[in-house]
Design the sequence.
């Protein structure tokens, strides 16, 4: 073991800033990070053992205990649950004779819950040693387990392939892209790689920045910061070492648009990165790819090589003397908060993904303390069309404050889940119709960190000036238990995914979730609703990063828009004492007479 | 970052203050006789911005005073009912999410969390106690680590080292798993002075020296005599 671990460390030049890559390699080999590896890492990288462990313990897909030769990570998002996850869990447990979050006695198979893996349009879905298995059913589970027990390799377990685009040998996945509506800016049919890049390098970097500024292109990851302005700030920071990072850590449950771009049009993204690199003077671009999407890593590497062969990456790109730019891919290891740009940078540097205090902003001091631009996948793709067609053309789409188009991931209770390229300004109502959703109780806009709206607001527009979103809508049908099935799931998600640095984010969300459970349990009063709402507002003003500031949104927005659901659950009898539990109190006597307890009044 | 050749003036709650440009706001306020409460900040350590109690309003925005650097003309609100209410809320959150039994704690009277509880007039926390199950690690010779009392301010994580290596580090993440882990091998090598330093930097009673206790009787300790922050405010007359 020692020799092998030393050679992994050596491969990354004993650089502690590449600790993530090192740990992932060790995890892949040994199916966990063994004690001996921690000792060697601490020794070789001159760290204490607790230092090595603080990084390991931050990431969901790194583990100090063996996760199984075959590690099954089954998505536990709300949409997975309403898509038949329980039956799949039951099938796995029956086939293997163990419960979830355990490993079989022989160490062959481990089954684990995992946060949203970006497959909301084809749930229930699981990752098995990196490969994606979608639309699972008890029957499929039976076949999978039989295949695993027969010792089949992962590729042999993939028995169906998504669409043609998912077929290349390096990709070969059963994931489907489900593009339901193409748009002029993304997925236009006449895209030809290199055109925009050649056009860009005929101009000065300043001219490119100006063009992007004039296009009013705003960041597509959710925050909506003007892309051109970000580039400009970075240029103003100066210095000869500048980095461009593509944020492909799409972790917001319900969002899967970047997944589709990455396999549908990776060249568009990489061309956008090269243009951005030219504009800000970066020589190195890094794609921070979420671990859940590692099934596409080999394919993306092959595309990068193709682009190098065509001289669209590398040295003196497209014949432009002195324009050197290349891209490498670095994996995350399962942490939603790493989608926040400063947490992402920390992770890239081999550390826990804790958001940094700002200022300084990444454009001033980012990756390795150098000026850094972090752009979302979709933002970088949009740049290509801005350069090709011009800022005015780009602005002809969308609204006055939200220029261009937006890729949306639609999922939940609807006939046509998938990807829709729409112009900003489209109404929720229109999207409900296009997705084929009927009897919609609520729509979750922008994932759990966004907001939940009811029918009286379906005429609102998706736009930065109205309903801003990083790109997802989840339709929730009338038959669903909005609070029990969605809000609780979302709160659990944030509690797990909080880095824990800020006290209110770490601890207050637990208190909120528990109070919500109290109400759902029929033990709440109107005072509980009022307190829940008041306490939920604290994180928004006190926490450091976007996660902490929005983590209570599932509760806030459902109390604002669906207060009646809470009121239906609470006790209004003024003599009600919430600390008294009738069920517990009569448990002994019920047991004595062998009778089931039935609550005499309303409850969930 | 601090420019020791450039004095600037700024304002806290209407009072004109002066400081070196770039000084952390929390330190600058202290130099001007104004107390901004904090549990994670220690002058000289890299600000963590993790307890969020030093939340102030800077030019209309909520910011943590430990991570904000002063600049000329800055307008800061500190002692307002809204901010004090937020601080009290966070203090109460910390009380219920750990196991803080003051009467039996060696740090009582020297504990900054307890002192802030008094300062912000916490009677009974508005939140239900969680009584979480947390561990105690007493393996090192000179200190023991009681995670029941840890508020994860990261002071020890940032400051206590042995031969340049961190003795304490965070472990896990999220509301239910994050904790501070102690490197037992390194902690066992701490000298008397280093062990005392570790105990002293902890704002609560999570790191304590072994084999000594109640050398100063309860009732005669730092915050038993004067409320936290009153020494700073005394400068202001």
Sequence:
């Amino acid at each position: 073991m020692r020799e092998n671990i030393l050679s992994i460390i050596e491969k990354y030049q004993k650089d502690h800033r590449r600790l993530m890559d090192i740990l992932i390699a060790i995890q892949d080999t040994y199916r966990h990070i063994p004690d001996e590896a921690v000792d060697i890492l601490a020794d070789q990288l001159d760290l204490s053992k607790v230092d090595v462990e603080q990084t390991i313990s931050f990431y969901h897909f790194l583990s100090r205990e063996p996760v199984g030769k075959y590690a099954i990570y089954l998505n536990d998002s709300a949409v997975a649950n309403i898509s038949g996850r329980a039956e799949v869990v039951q099938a796995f447990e029956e086939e293997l004779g163990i419960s979830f979050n355990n490993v079989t006695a022989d160490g062959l198979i481990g089954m684990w819950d995992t946060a949203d893996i970006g497959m909301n349009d084809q749930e229930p879905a699981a990752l098995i040693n990196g490969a994606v298995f979608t639309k699972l059913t008890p029957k499929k589970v039976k076949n999978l387990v039989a295949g695993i027990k027969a010792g089949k390799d992962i590729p042999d377990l993939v028995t169906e392939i998504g669409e043609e685009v998912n077929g290349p040998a390096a990709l070969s996945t059963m994931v489907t892209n489900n593009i339901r509506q193409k748009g002029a800016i993304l997925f236009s049919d006449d895209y030809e790689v290199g055109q925009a890049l050649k056009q860009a390098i005929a101009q000065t970097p300043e001219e490119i920045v100006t063009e992007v500024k004039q296009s009013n292109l705003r960041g597509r990851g959710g925050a909506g910061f003007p892309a051109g302005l970000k580039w400009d700030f970075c240029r103003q920071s100066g210095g000869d070492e500048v980095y461009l990072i593509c944020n492909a850590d799409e972790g917001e449950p319900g969002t899967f648009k970047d997944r589709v771009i990455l396999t549908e049009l990776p060249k568009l993204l990489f061309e956008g990165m090269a243009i951005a690199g030219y504009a800000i003077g970066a020589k190195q671009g890094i794609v921070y790819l979420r671990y859940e999407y590692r099934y596409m890593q080999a394919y993306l590497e092959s595309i990068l090589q193709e682009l190098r062969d065509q001289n669209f990456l590398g040295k003196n790109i497209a014949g432009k003397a002195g324009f050197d730019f290349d891209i490498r891919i670095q994996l995350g290891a399962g942490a939603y908060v790493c989608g926040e740009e400063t947490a992402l940078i920390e992770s890239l540097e081999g550390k826990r993904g804790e958001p940094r205090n700002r200022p300084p902003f990444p454009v001033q001091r980012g990756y390795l303390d150098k000026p850094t631009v972090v752009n979302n996948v979709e933002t970088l793709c949009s740049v290509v069309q801005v350069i090709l067609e011009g800022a005015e053309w780009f602005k002809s789409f969308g609204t006055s404050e939200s220029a261009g188009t937006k890729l949306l991931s639609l999922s939940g209770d609807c006939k046509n889940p998938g990807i829709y390229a729409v112009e900003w300004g489209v109404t929720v109502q229109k999207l409900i119709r296009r997705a084929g959703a009927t009897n919609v109780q609520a729509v979750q806009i922008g994932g759990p960190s966004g907001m939940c709206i009811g029918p009286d607001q379906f005429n609102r527009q998706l736009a930065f000036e109205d309903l801003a979103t990083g790109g997802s809508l989840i339709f929730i049908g009338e038959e669903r238990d909005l609070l029990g099935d969605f809000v609780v799931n979302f709160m659990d998600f944030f509690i797990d995914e909080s880095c824990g640095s800020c006290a209110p984010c770490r601890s207050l969300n637990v208190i909120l979730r528990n109070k919500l459970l109290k109400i759902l349990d029929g033990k709440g009063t109107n005072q509980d609703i009022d307190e829940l709402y008041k306490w939920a507002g604290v994180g928004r003003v006190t926490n450091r990063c976007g996660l902490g500031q929005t983590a209570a949104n599932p509760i806030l927005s459902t109390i604002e828009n669906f207060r009646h659901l809470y009121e239906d659950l609470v006790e209004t009898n003024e003599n009600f004492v919430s600390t008294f539990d009738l069920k517990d109190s009569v448990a002994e006597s019920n047991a004595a007479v062998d009778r089931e307890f039935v609550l005499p009044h309303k409850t969930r | 970052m601090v420019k020791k050749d450039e004095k600037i003036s700024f304002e806290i709650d209407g009072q004109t203050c002066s400081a070196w440009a770039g000084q952390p706001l929390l330190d600058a306020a202290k130099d001007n006789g104004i107390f901004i409460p904090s549990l994670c900040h220690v002058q000289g350590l890299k600000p963590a911005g993790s307890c969020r109690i030093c939340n102030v309003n800077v030019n209309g925005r909520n910011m943590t005073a430990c991570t904000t650097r002063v600049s000329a003309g800055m307008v800061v609100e500190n002692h307002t009912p809204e901010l004090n209410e937020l601080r009290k809320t966070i203090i109460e959150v910390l009380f219920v999410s750990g196991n803080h039994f003051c009467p039996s704690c060696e740090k009582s009277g020297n504990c900054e969390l307890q002192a802030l509880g008094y300062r912000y007039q916490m009677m009974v926390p508005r939140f239900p106690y969680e009584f979480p199950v947390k561990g105690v690690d007493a393996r090192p010779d000179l200190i023991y680590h009681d995670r029941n009392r840890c508020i994860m301010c990261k002071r020890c994580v940032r400051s206590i080292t042995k031969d340049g290596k961190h003795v304490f580090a965070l472990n896990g993440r999220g509301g239910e798993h994050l904790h501070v882990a102690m490197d037992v091998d390194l902690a066992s090598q701490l000298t008397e002075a280093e062990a005392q330093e570790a105990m002293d930097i902890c704002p609560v009673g999570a790191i304590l020296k072994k084999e000594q206790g109640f050398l100063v009787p309860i009732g005669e300790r730092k915050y038993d005599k004067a409320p936290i922050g009153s020494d700073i405010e005394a400068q202001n007359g």
User: Anything to note?
Assistant: The first helix of chain B runs from residue 25 to 31. Residues 88-215 of chain B form one domain.
